[in-house]
Amino acid sequence: MKMWSGRFRQSLDPGFENWQRSFPFDRRLLGQELAASRAHARALRTGGVLDSGELIAILRGLDQIAEQAAASPEFTNDHEAEDVHHFVERQLVSLIGETGYKLHSGRSRNEQIAADLRLYVREAIDQVRSKLGELCEAFLERAEQSGSSAMPAYTHLQRAEPVLVAHWLLAYVEMFLRDAGRLEEVRRRANISPLGSGAVAGATLALDRDAIAADLDCPAITANSIDATSDRDFVLEFVNALSFVALHLSRWAEEMILFSSGEFGFIELPEAYSTGSSAMPQKKNPDLAELVRAKSARVIGQVTALLVTLKALPLAYHKDLQETQEPLFTAFETIDALLPLVRGWIEAAEFNFQHMRERAQSGFMNAWAAATYLVNRGVPSRLAHEVVGRAVQFSLDTDRELEDLSLDELRAFSPLFAEDVYACLGLEAVLALHDVPGGTAPTRVRQALEEARRKVESLRENAHAHA
Ligand code: ARG
After folding, report:
1. For 154-185, what is the HEC assignment?
2. Residue 315: is its pLDDT beyond 90?
């Protein structure tokens, strides 16, 4: 039986009927729908709508639905169910008879879908946070293993200054830790129970909303039934937070594609995550990174889909809101599948430390250090910059690096240059110069590694534990 057929004389156009169904995708919400239904059933008992025998029958029926769904995926091949709510009602009635229809007392699908989606987002956040923790762990381990290895850091994709490889890897850990923090904030706003909001004006039976919320492990209930049944901010916020993860992964992917090219030669692609060319026998392609780069578009696109679906929608529930489900599922499933693969890639990739170091030692990446040498001897910074710029120009003309110039040649640019300048131009000295919190001096990076380890460990321990 349909959930609404009483006032209709005609049956639905079969094409329309099939097209408007959400069960093909909202079957993902079965677990949440069952949990919310158990909580509602218990509130119906407390409110005197169900007797204890009916409650037991309903709870047993709901458990059986869960068991059958777990036992066989075909169980949800129900081509008549309109949505997950209808599916559960149909199954329940076929299991326990007409008492099954009593479960819908005092509730509306409008609040049910809002509740299911909130519970789904809550679980999805825990899963993404836990996978982000594992990803951070992989980056951190590679950073710890890289010791004192150095590489060039780039601005404008031009070599700028040398940094420790660990410093570069920790930049990604920072991004993913921010993502995990953002998700935790979204979780707080999603984890609120809308049950008892009815269709728009509030439940028609005296239900204990707080008890339902406690049953679902939600610390609070929504304050306004109109808002509660039409709000999808938490979906948008979650997908938006996922788009940050996608964004960060796409920047990482782009660097991997560049750094594994012959022109950079910093990274050897892991064979387990690369493919060859059917035509060119020598090829090994960075497929994983390329697909990560492209799949980020899919996640970012879902934010736009949600914004446009919700924009200008009058209060309260509209069937438009059904269209917020697939963007949510797509964004989550895309990120959920990516994260462990990226982690495997990071663990397997090989760094060409020697080549990185060579590139960190050439290309005048000590020019700022040379200017700093003069600044420390009283030269105004702008003038020191000019002096060293001219020395760089001279070195380029004679195909050398700054440290290849003789002292006499250097002194032609500034008489303040002395023998000790050469010690300031070496890679280790240049690295050590950046001795501020957050800088690349090895002592600072060691502290940063310890700090990052603390944060990653706390994320890994708390990904599923929330106040
Ligand atoms: N499948 C619907 C959705 O996802 C459930 C709510 C239906 N409510 C209604 N009044 N038709 O939005």
Report:
1. EECCEEEEEEEHHHHHHHHHHHHHHHHHHHHH
2. yes
